[in-house]
Specification:
- The structure is a single chain.
- By secondary structure, this protein is mainly alpha-helical.
- It has one domain.
- 30% of the residues lie in helices and 0% in strands.
- It is built from 5 helices and no strands.
- Bound molecules: iron/sulfur cluster (2 copies).
- The site of one iron/sulfur cluster has 14 residues, from loops.
Length: 92
């Protein structure tokens, strides 16, 4: 397993925003992710509130309602083996 790079390409591949665990409140606070898409995904001051396998756990997701990471290209490309990266740094 290698560390997921905070790139615009990976952000676009991330499936989190289509996931049942991704709450409406989180959609509202995902603005940084949208800004990152326009600017620099590597800026460590910003948390994308998506692509949690790279940015670490979420500030706004707390319930397991299903995880679609297994359907994501990033998971396969980086050899990730866990799910729920939004709930625990490094996944569960
Ligand atoms: S593996 Fe999961 S957290 Fe990581 S980019 Fe894909 S959907 Fe997002
Ligand atoms: S890490 Fe998994 S459970 Fe969390 S938002 Fe992304 S796809 Fe959904």
């Amino acid at each position: 397993m290698s560390e997921v790079e905070k790139t615009r390409e990976n952000l676009l591949k991330c499936r989190c925003k289509s996931c049942p665990s991704y709450t409406f409140a989180c959609k509202l606070s995902a603005m940084p992710g949208n800004i990152i898409l326009l600017m620099d995904a590597k800026d460590d001051r910003l948390h994308a509130e998506t692509m949690f396998c790279a940015y670490g756990k979420s500030q706004c997701i707390s319930d397991e309602k299903g995880c679609i990471c297994p359907d994501c290209e990033v998971l396969e490309e980086y050899g990730l083996e866990k799910t729920y990266y939004c709930l625990e740094n490094g996944g569960k």
